[in-house]
C-alpha cells in the first residue's frame, strides 16, 4: 500500500493535514476561497455556504453528491473518481474543478503554497473545535510534524517554539512548568497538564504536585496546545498559570498506516544515544479502528563523577532510558456517536541527575565543566499510566461528552544526603558513614467530566458541565547510613528515620461557558466555575531523626472557590481579531503535616488566587504569507503559596502579594514557496509585592523564580523539490534566555544580601534532510555551539563542600534519523 505522504512543514506553525483523497479538491477550493476572502458566502450547487465557518467541499463530500462528467478523470483528479466509474463519475464536490485548479496555478507561487498547505489551525482550547484566530485568549500550537522536524521527545526539546514557557528541571520526570512568571517555588502546580481529555498529575501540594508535570513522549502526537493565563473556568484548579495539552492522533477507520523512526546520536563528552519508535493504524471495518505506538529512548550520559567520599570515579553517570507506548480503539458506528478507549504507559529511568556542582555565589561550574561529586550513587524511576474512555454523542440540540480517566504516577529516587547528615551520625554514633534518603511518591487519580455543548451557531453558543476528581497520594521516606563507598548498611545502628504521609484530595465542580455573537464582528465570551475541595493527610514516623515513634493527628482542610472569565472580541475582518480577557485562577491550599517544633498557626495553608488582564491581537494576510499573534498581560496575585524549612522539614506557607506584567508574541513570514521564518518572544516582569514569611527568604521587589525577563525563539526553514516525489529541506532554530532568578534561599540571602540567579544562555539547533516519499533521512545538531545552559539550582546544603547542584542542558549533540512508512 502506498505511503500516505506527510509533506514536511516548517516548525513555525501547526497545520491540519487533509486526507490524501481530498487533497486536490481542497487545494482548488482554498485557492478559490482566498481569491474571494472578503465575501461572506459563496453559492455551490444551489446552496449558500458561509466562508468563515464552513468548508463547502467537505460538506459536499459528506453528503456524497455525485455527478457524471464527460471524458476520463485526469491524473490530478483521480483521487476523487469512483473506482467503478471507468473514469466517468466524480464527486459533485469537484464543481468546476478544472477551472479552480487553473485558478490556483495562475496565482503567485507563494500564495499557492499558502493556499495548498495552510489550512486554518484548529484547537480545542475552549473544549470545542475552533479556528485559532477565533479563540479570545493567548494560545500556542506546536504540530506533530514540527515536533518530528526538531527531533523533539520531551519538554526541553520544544520550549523554543512556545513564547514564555519555562521549565525548571534537573532530572527527567521531575519538572516544574512556568507560564507568565506564575511561580513562587511552592509545591503545588500552577500549570495543568492534559493528555486529550485527561488531567494528569496532582492538584495537591501534599505530594509535591508542582514537579509531577507529565513529561510525555511526543511521538505520534497530533499537536500540543499551550494556553497561557488562568484557565480555571474550563480546566479547573492548578491552572492559574495556564494549561499544556497533548492532543494525540486518533484511530482512523479509513486507512491502514505503518510508520517507524530510528535515530542515533553522539554527545560531546558523553555516550551515544539510541532512539526508536513505531506506530500502526489498523482499520477493523468501517466503524472500528485500532492505533498503537511504542517508543524506546536510550540517552547516553554526559556528566562525570569526581569520586568524592570514596565513590569510584565514573564517566557519563547520568544515562537515562524512556520507554512506553499508547494504544487506542475508536468505535464510531455513525457520524453522531463514538466511543474511544485509550491506554498510555511510560517509564523514565535515570542513573543520576543532569546537574553539576557549581559555586553557589556565582553559578560557575566547579571541578571541570560537567561533573558532580557523589558519596552515594543516585537514581530516579518515574512511571506514568493513563487509562481513559470518551463517549461523544450528537443529540441534535447539543453534543454530549463524557470523559472518564484513571491515572497513576510514581516517582522513586535515592538522594545523597551525606553532607547534611553524615557528620551528625558520626558524631553521635562514632562511625564514618555515607548517608542517603530513599523516597517513593505515588498518586492515583480518578476523574469524571460530563459536559453538554451547543452546536456551532452564529448567534449563541454555550457549554455546561460537571467535574469530579479523587486523588490518593503517598510519600514514603527512609533515611539510611551505609559503609563509605558502598550501599551496605552499618551494623548496630538504631532505626534512623522513616516517615509515611498518606493524603486524600477530592474536588467537585460545576462550570458553564457561553459566547454571544453580536452581529458578524463582535463576540462576547464569558463563563464561571464553582468548585469545592476537601483534603486530609496523616503522617506516621519513627527513628532517631524523627524523635522516636510519632503518629500525628489527621490534618484536614476544605474550601470553596468561584472562578470566572470574560472575553470580548472584535473581528476587524476574517483575518484580524482584537480581544480582551479578564480571568480568575486559583490553586488549592491544604493541611500541613507539621514538623516537631513547628508553630501551630501553620497547621493549614490557604489557597492562592490571581486575576489576569489580557489584551491581544491576532492577524494574518489574506494569502497567509504573514501572521502575528501578540498579547499583553497584567496579573495580580494574592496569598501566594511559598515553601520553607522548619527544623529541616518542608512546610507550606501563605505569603503576601505578587504581580506579573508582560508581552508575548509569535510572528510568521512565508515570503516564497517552501521558505518560512518565525519569531516568538516574551518579556516578563514578575515580582513580589510583599516580603515572604521570614523562613522563606523573599523580599518585596524580588523577581519570581525561574522566569527570565526576556526570552526569544527564532526558526527558519526552506524546502525544495528534487524531482518526482523527492524533496529536501534545511532549517535552523535559536533560543535565547536572559538571566533568571533561582528559588528563594534564606541562607544565601543572609550570606550574600541578594537573590540567587542563573546566567543567561543561547542554544542553536540545525537540521536538514531528504524525503523520498516512502522514507526519509535527516541529520541534525542540537546545541550546536555547545552552550552551557543552566535550568535549576538546588540549595547547597546537600552538596559536598558547600557547592550548589545546578541543572544543565545536554551538550552539543549530533544525530541522524531514518523514517519509513507504508
Explain the overall architecture:
With 822 residues, the protein is mainly β. It folds into two domains: 17-119, no CATH class; 243-821, Beta Barrel (Maltoporin, Chain A), CATH 2.40.170. The strands form eleven sheets. The protein has a 22-stranded antiparallel beta barrel. A five-stranded mixed sheet has the order 7-12-13-10-11. Strand 22 and strand 23 form a beta hairpin. Helix 1 (23-35) packs across helix 3 and helix 1 (23-35) packs across helix 4. Mean pLDDT is 83; it is low at 1-10, 12-41 and 59-118. Belongs to the TonB-dependent receptor family. This is TonB-dependent receptor, plug.
Give me the Rg, rounded.
Answer: 28 Å
The CATH architecture designation of the largest domain is Beta Barrel
CATH class value of the largest domain? Mainly Beta
Give the overall shape: globular
Continuous helix count: 9
Q: In total, how many domains does the architecture comprise? A: 2
- Provide the residue-averaged pLDDT: 83
Please outline the major beta sheet.
22 strands, antiparallel, barrel
Number of strands: 47
**Proportion in helices:** under 10%
Compact overview of the structure:
By secondary structure, the chain is mainly beta. It has 2 domains: 17-119, no CATH class; 243-821, Maltoporin, Chain A (Beta Barrel). It has 9 helices and 47 strands.
Strand-helix topology:
Blueprint: H1 23-35, E1 41-44, E2 47-50, H2 56-63, E3 66-68, E4 89-91, H3 97-106, H4 109-117, E5 122-123, E6 130-131, E7 139-143, H5 144-149, H6 155-158, E8 165-168, E9 176-179, E10 191-195, E11 198-200, E12 221-228, H7 232-235, E13 242-248, E14 257-267, E15 272-283, E16 288-299, E17 304-305, E18 320-334, E19 337-350, E20 355-358, E21 371-372, E22 379-394, E23 399-416, H8 418-429, E24 434-453, E25 460-482, E26 497-518, E27 522-542, E28 550-551, E29 555-573, E30 576-587, E31 590-591, E32 604-605, E33 608-620, E34 626-638, E35 641-646, E36 649-654, E37 657-672, E38 675-688, E39 710-723, E40 726-737, E41 740-741, H9 746-752, E42 757-758, E43 761-771, E44 775-782, E45 790-793, E46 804-808, E47 813-821
Parallel strand pairs: 10-13, 17-21
Antiparallel strand pairs: 1-2, 3-4, 5-6, 7-12, 8-9, 10-11, 12-13, 14-15, 14-47, 15-16, 16-18, 18-19, 19-22, 20-46, 22-23, 23-24, 24-25, 25-26, 26-27, 27-28, 27-29, 29-30, 30-33, 31-32, 33-34, 34-37, 35-36, 37-38, 38-39, 39-40, 40-43, 41-42, 43-44, 44-47, 45-46
Helix pairs in contact: 1-3, 1-4
Amino acid at each position: 500500500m502506498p505511503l500516505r505522504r506527510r509533506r514536511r512543514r516548517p516548525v513555525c506553525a501547526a497545520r491540519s493535514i487533509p486526507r490524501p483523497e481530498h487533497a486536490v479538491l481542497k487545494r482548488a477550493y482554498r485557492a478559490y476561497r482566498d481569491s474571494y476572502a472578503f465575501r461572506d458566502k459563496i453559492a455551490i450547487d444551489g446552496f449558500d455556504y458561509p466562508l468563515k465557518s464552513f468548508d463547502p467541499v467537505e460538506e459536499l463530500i459528506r453528503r456524497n453528491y455525485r455527478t457524471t462528467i464527460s471524458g476520463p478523470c485526469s491524473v490530478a483528479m483521480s483521487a476523487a473518481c469512483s473506482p467503478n466509474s471507468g473514469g466517468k463519475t466524480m464527486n459533485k464536490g469537484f464543481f468546476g474543478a478544472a477551472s479552480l485548479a487553473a485558478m490556483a496555478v495562475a496565482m503567485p507561487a507563494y500564495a499557492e503554497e499558502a493556499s495548498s498547505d495552510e489550512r486554518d489551525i484548529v484547537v480545542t482550547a475552549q473544549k470545542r473545535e475552533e479556528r485559532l484566530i477565533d479563540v479570545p485568549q493567548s494560545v500556542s500550537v506546536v504540530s506533530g510534524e514540527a515536533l518530528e522536524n526538531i527531533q523533539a521527545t520531551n519538554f526541553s526539546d520544544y520550549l523554543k517554539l512556545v513564547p514564555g514557557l519555562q521549565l525548571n528541571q534537573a532530572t527527567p520526570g521531575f519538572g516544574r512548568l512556568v507560564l507568565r512568571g506564575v511561580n513562587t517555588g511552592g509545591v503545588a502546580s500552577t500549570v495543568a497538564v492534559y493528555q486529550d481529555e485527561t488531567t494528569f498529575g496532582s492538584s495537591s501540594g501534599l505530594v509535591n504536585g508542582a514537579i509531577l508535570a507529565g513529561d510525555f513522549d511526543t511521538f505520534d502526537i497530533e499537536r500540543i496546545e499551550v494556553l497561557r493565563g488562568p484557565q480555571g473556568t474550563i480546566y479547573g484548579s492548578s491552572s492559574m498559570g495556564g494549561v499544556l495539552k497533548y492532543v494525540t492522533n486518533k484511530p482512523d477507520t479509513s486507512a491502514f498506516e505503518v510508520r517507524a523512526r530510528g535515530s542515533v546520536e553522539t554527545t560531546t563528552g558523553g555516550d551515544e544515544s539510541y532512539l526508536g519508535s513505531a506506530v500502526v493504524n489498523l482499520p477493523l471495518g468501517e466503524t472500528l479502528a485500532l492505533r498503537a505506538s511504542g517508543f524506546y529512548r536510550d540517552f547516553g550520559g554526559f556528566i562525570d563523577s569526581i569520586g568524592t567520599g570514596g565513590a569510584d570515579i565514573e564517566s557519563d553517570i547520568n544515562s537515562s532510558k524512556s520507554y512506553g507506548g499508547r494504544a487506542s480503539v475508536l468505535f464510531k458506528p455513525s457520524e453522531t456517536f463514538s466511543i474511544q478507549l485509550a491506554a498510555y504507559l511510560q517509564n523514565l529511568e535515570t542513573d543520576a541527575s543532569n546537574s553539576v556542582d557549581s559555586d553557589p555565589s556565582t553559578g560557575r561550574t566547579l571541578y571541570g565543566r560537567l561533573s558532580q561529586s557523589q558519596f552515594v550513587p543516585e537514581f530516579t524511576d518515574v512511571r506514568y499510566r493513563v487509562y481513559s474512555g470518551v463517549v461523544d454523542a450528537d443529540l441534535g440540540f447539543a453534543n454530549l461528552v463524557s470523559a472518564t480517566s484513571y491515572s497513576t504516577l510514581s516517582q522513586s529516587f535515592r538522594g545523597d544526603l551525606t553532607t547534611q547528615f553524615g557528620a551528625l551520625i558520626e558524631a553521635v554514633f562514632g562511625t564514618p558513614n555515607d548517608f542517603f534518603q530513599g523516597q517513593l511518591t505515588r498518586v492515583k487519580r480518578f476523574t469524571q467530566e460530563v459536559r453538554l455543548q451547543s452546536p456551532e451557531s452564529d448567534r449563541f453558543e454555550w457549554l455546561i458541565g460537571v467535574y469530579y476528581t479523587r486523588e490518593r497520594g503517598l510519600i514514603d521516606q527512609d533515611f539510611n547510613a551505609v559503609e563509605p563507598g558502598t550501599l551496605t548498611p552499618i551494623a548496630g545502628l538504631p532505626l534512623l528515620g522513616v516517615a509515611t504521609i498518606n493524603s486524600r484530595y477530592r474536588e467537585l465542580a460545576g462550570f458553564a461557558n457561553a459566547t454571544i455573537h453580536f452581529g458578524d464582528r463582535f463576540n462576547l465570551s464569558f463563563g464561571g466555575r464553582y468548585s469545592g475541595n476537601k483534603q486530609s493527610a496523616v503522617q506516621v514516623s519513627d527513628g532517631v531523626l524523627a524523635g522516636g515513634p510519632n503518629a500525628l493527628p489527621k490534618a484536614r482542610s476544605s474550601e470553596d472557590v468561584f472562578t470566572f472569565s470574560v472575553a470580548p472580541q472584535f473581528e476587524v475582518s476574517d483575518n484580524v481579531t482584537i480581544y480582551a480577557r479578564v480571568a480568575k485562577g486559583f490553586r488549592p491550599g491544604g493541611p500541613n503535616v507539621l514538623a516537631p517544633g513547628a508553630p501551630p498557626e501553620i497547621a493549614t495553608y490557604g489557597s492562592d488566587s490571581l486575576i489576569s488582564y489580557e489584551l491581544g491581537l491576532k492577524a494574518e494576510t489574506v494569502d497567509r504569507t504573514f501572521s502575528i499573534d501578540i498579547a499583553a498581560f497584567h496579573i495580580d496575585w494574592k496569598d501566594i503559596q511559598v515553601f520553607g524549612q522548619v527544623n529541616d522539614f518542608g512546610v507550606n506557607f501563605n505569603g503576601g502579594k505578587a504581580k506579573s506584567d508582560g508581552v508575548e508574541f509569535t510572528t510568521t513570514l512565508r515570503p516564497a514557496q517552501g521558505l518560512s521564518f518565525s519569531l516568538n518572544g516574551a518579556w516578563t516582569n514578575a515580582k513580589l509585592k510583599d516580603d515572604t514569611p521570614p523562613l522563606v527568604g523573599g523580599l518585596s521587589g524580588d523577581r519570581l523564580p525561574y522566569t527570565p525577563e526576556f526570552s526569544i525563539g527564532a526558526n527558519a526553514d526552506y524546502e525544495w523539490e528534487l524531482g518526482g516525489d523527492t524533496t529536501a529541506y534545511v532549517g535552523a532554530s535559536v533560543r535565547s534566555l536572559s538571566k533568571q532568578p533561582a528559588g528563594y534561599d534564606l541562607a544565601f540571602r543572609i550570606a550574600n544580601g541578594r537573590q540567587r540567579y542563573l546566567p543567561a544562555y543561547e542554544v542553536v539547533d540545525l537540521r536538514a534532510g531528504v524525503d523520498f516519499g516512502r522514507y526519509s533521512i535527516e541529520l541534525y545538531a542540537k546545541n550546536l555551539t555547545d552552550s552551557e545552559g543552566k535550568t535549576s539550582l538546588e540549595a547547597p546544603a546537600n552538596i559536598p563542600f558547600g557547592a550548589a547542584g545546578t541543572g544543565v542542558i545536554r551538550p552539543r549533540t549530533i544525530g541522524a534519523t531514518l523514517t519509513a512508512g507504508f
